[in-house]
Design goal:
7-stranded mixed sheet; single chain; 8-stranded mixed sheet; alpha/beta; binds adenosine-5'-monophosphate-propyl ester; GMP Synthetase, Chain A, domain 3
Length: 658
């Protein structure tokens, strides 16, 4: 845990942006008073609140008990006895309504002319076909399915096909290495892998199937691999195991009855990084998750049937799960999906897509905003962005400068920005403005969503004062919260429910200002947010230590103008290994291979020794300060086993070149 100073906020942002009268009048939640009244009701009687709104979902059988939980064992149950199917809620119910010919999914490939649009009816047919393919491969309810695909329509089709037959999908971001894929496949015992020959990435081709083959070279339970042909790069197909998606789909039937699922049956597993070296399989279940993503989507993005919604995240992360696929489709929305990157072929790619599809609601990450801001106003300025009426931000705190640029240049000074705070674990957005009701402050996530009861606690579990930084916790489970770490319930209890018994520990620091608005201050654990992606320091450290020349490593965040945070690694080499610049490059390459390119250290500093307490614990607080060059305020170093280690690190930091 970091010291109190790290979670003390230094921000002093005074600008205020109330919603316009015009926006509020047509919004779902029209005023601060309405928000406050509904919010108070949702906290006073959450059961009544969720019971009322659960009717937005189609249930085959109604539930018998809305909420039950055992705080000691952390068994959380929503909508006991309720039966439903997620793919039915996302597809069938719309395909049977006037929405049957509405665009459900608009896909823009990296090549400009690759566009595919699926109506609700068409998407349902594709999902049924692939559900039948899965069945033909012996995939049954409860089986785990690994999906390692680029951002192509087959990805949501495969997800929804799993949901349809009750199989649990585990999506691995296409940018992860074969090593990471292997660990994730093994951890959840996946039976089948869905992948592609390759993917496009900024004009280059990335081999995915080849990574899959490496991942499957060791022990696993995978019996079948289905391969989408996306790029045409050559792949090896293993006889009896590997088949092509298009061959399988050719003969598959478009009829597949959805499996009747219990509200608490698992829907998916998604791995995320934490403080330890091993990623956690965050498990979400069906009823509560579906309801939570539907309602947050509708109210926070103020979605109306005529809107086109675009979330730029990758479906390999939770943002894509909840706000490209499940939330928008459950709401009967038109959701845009983009295969490429913001800067290819030119830095106006996002703005071209907004113009092309007349996007009304645009949801992206601060790292993308900063990267595009740097390129200047001429790029968005030469595109027609007038369709946009609402903007969203997610993944890390948005710095006020980027917020103002987003507001003025992209939103034309007229669109509210919802700065949405949430996590893989929370399933959906927890702290956010409601755009028709909340006064916005640049960089501030503002207020809790309905049914969310946050606290900001001191070390001793008492509530922090106004503007005093503390641990952000949520005092009671909500429908969208994760239920367990797959196969490791004790780990779930330890990580999230032990520090303050009975309340959910988010791992973030926060403060509440004099208006009661919540400002997120950043992580208080050893998680580093690189371009909004969560990288566990321990994962990178163990990758570094697995290199033959490395004895020990410690990894900390350093500020980065575009990425927000970047990785700074202190590395102690084995005795006799000379320190050379070439070795740094080799180590960076090694981490890329072990974890994936997103985890590559920005800087490496060789260190003869690391600062440790007498009990042998590395003092990261000191390393963080050294990495940021903030060496004037190293704090108390008297508890170190050998304080002279610090002086050496400080002097070699000064000489460090990248
Ligand atoms: O530190 C917070 C930061 O992202 C973490 C969750 O990361 P992940 O599970 O990858 O999910 C990201 C997308 C939901 C949080 O613990 N974070 C996310 N959104 C914000 C944020 N920090 C500040 N402001 C936000 N809006």
């Amino acid at each position: 845990m970091s010291d109190a100073k790290t979670i003390e906020s230094v921000m002093d942002e005074r600008r205020r942006f109330p919603p316009s009268k015009e926006f509020s009048e047509s919004a779902h939640i029209k005023s601060k008073e309405t928000y406050e009244e509904m919010y108070r009701g949702s906290i006073r009687d959450p059961v009544a609140f969720w019971e009322k709104w659960a009717k937005e979902i189609d249930w085959y059988t109604p539930w018998t008990k809305t909420f039950d939980w055992d705080p000691k064992e952390v068994r959380i149950e929503w909508f006991r006895g309720g039966k439903l199917n997620a793919s039915h809620n996302c597809l069938d119910r719309h395909a049977r309504s006037w929405r049957k010919n509405k665009a459900a999914l608009i896909w823009q490939g990296e090549p400009e002319n690759d566009v595919r649009t699926f109506t609700y009816q068409q998407l349902l047919a594709e999902v049924c076909k692939f559900a039948n393919v899965l069945k033909s491969k012996g995939v049954k309810k409860g089986d785990r399915v690994a999906i390692y695909l680029p951002m192509i329509p087959e990805l949501p089709i495969a997800m929804l096909a799993c949901a349809r037959i009750g199989a649990i999908h585990s999506i691995v971001f296409g940018g992860f290495s074969s090593e990471s894929l292997k660990d994730r496949i093994a951890d959840s015992g996946c039976k089948i892998l869905i992948t592609a020959d390759g993917s496009y990435r900024g004009g280059k081709l990335v081999a995915l199937k080849a990574n899959g083959d490496i991942a499957l070279a060791k022990e696993h339970y995978v019996e079948n691999v289905v391969v989408v042909k996306r790029t045409g790069i050559p792949v090896e197909m293993k006889e009896g195991r590997d088949t092509w998606w298009h061959d399988e789909m050719e003969t598959a039937s478009t009829v597949c009855e959805p499996e009747v699922m219990d509200a608490e049956d698992p829907l998916f597993i998604l791995y995320t990084s934490g403080s330890t070296g091993k990623p956690k399989g965050v498990l979400h279940t069906t009823g509560g998750y579906m309801l939570y993503v539907l309602l947050t989507f509708k109210w926070i993005f103020d979605y109306r049937d005529e809107d086109t919604f675009w979330c730029t995240a990758d479906i390999g992360w939770i943002t894509g799960h909840s706000y490209i696929v499940y939330g928008p489709l459950a709401a009967g929305a038109t959701t845009v999906m983009f295969e490429g990157i913001p800067t290819y072929p030119q830095v106006d790619r996002y703005w071209r897509i907004v113009e092309k599809f007349k996007v009304n609601i645009f949801y992206t990450a601060p790292t993308a905003i900063r990267a595009l801001m740097r390129e200047g106003e001429k790029w968005p300025g030469s595109r027609d962005l007038s369709s946009i009426r609402l903007l969203g931000s997610v993944g890390e705190a948005i710095n006020p400068e980027a917020w103002m640029w987003y507001y003025n240049v992209i939103g034309g000074g007229k669109c509210p920005i919802v700065d949405t705070w949430w996590q893989t674990e929370t399933g959906g957005i927890l702290i956010t403005p409601l755009p028709g009701a909340t006064v916005l402050k640049p960089g501030c996530a503002t207020v809790p969503f309905f049914g969310i009861d946050p606290g900001i606690l001191r070390e001793d579990a008492t509530e922090a004062d106004i503007n005093e930084g503390g641990y952000l916790v949520i005092k009671k489970p909500w429908p969208g919260i994760m239920r367990t770490v797959y196969g490791q319930h004790e780990r779930f209890k330890d990580i999230y429910w032990t520090r303050f018994p009975g309340v959910y520990l988010t791992g973030d620091g926060a403060r509440r200002d004099e208006d009661g608005d919540i400002w997120i201050v950043g992580r208080v654990d050893d998680v580093i947010k690189v371009s909004g992606h969560r990288i566990g320091a321990a994962e990178v450290e163990s990758a570094l230590v697995s290199h033959k020349d490395v004895a020990e490593a410690a990894v900390v965040p350093m500020p980065h103008p575009i990425k927000g945070e970047a990785i700074f690694a202190f590395v102690t080499l084995k005795a006799g290994v000379p320190e050379r610049e070439e070795l740094k490059k080799e180590l960076i390459q090694h981490v890329r291979q072990q974890v994936g390119p997103i985890a590559a250290p920005e800087m490496i500093q060789f260190a003869n020794a690391l600062p440790k307490t007498r009990s042998g614990k590395i003092m990261r607080r000191i390393l963080r300060r050294i990495a940021t060059g903030n060496v004037e305020e190293l704090g108390d170093t008297t508890t170190l086993a050998d304080p002279s280690v610090v002086d050496k690190l400080v002097s070699s930091r000064k000489e460090l070149v990248k």
